[in-house]
Design brief:
coiled coil; mainly alpha; single chain; CFAP44 isoform 12
């Protein structure tokens, strides 16, 4: 059994954790997109290097 005050604190903490989780998910998505972009750029650079070496 929780007191009214303890229940309010618990609910607030749950909200804080939900917000933090949401922010982390957004950051993770941004980092995944950045990683994909870097992989694409690396692939293109590798192609460019190979083309200049062979010509």
């Amino acid at each position: 059994v929780f007191s009214h005050h303890a229940l309010r604190r618990l609910q607030e903490r749950i909200r804080e954790l939900q917000e933090e989780n949401s922010k982390q998910q957004k950051l993770n998505k941004e980092w995944r997109e950045r990683r994909k972009q870097l992989i694409r750029e690396k692939r293109e650079m590798t192609k460019t290097i190979h083309m200049t070496v062979f010509f």
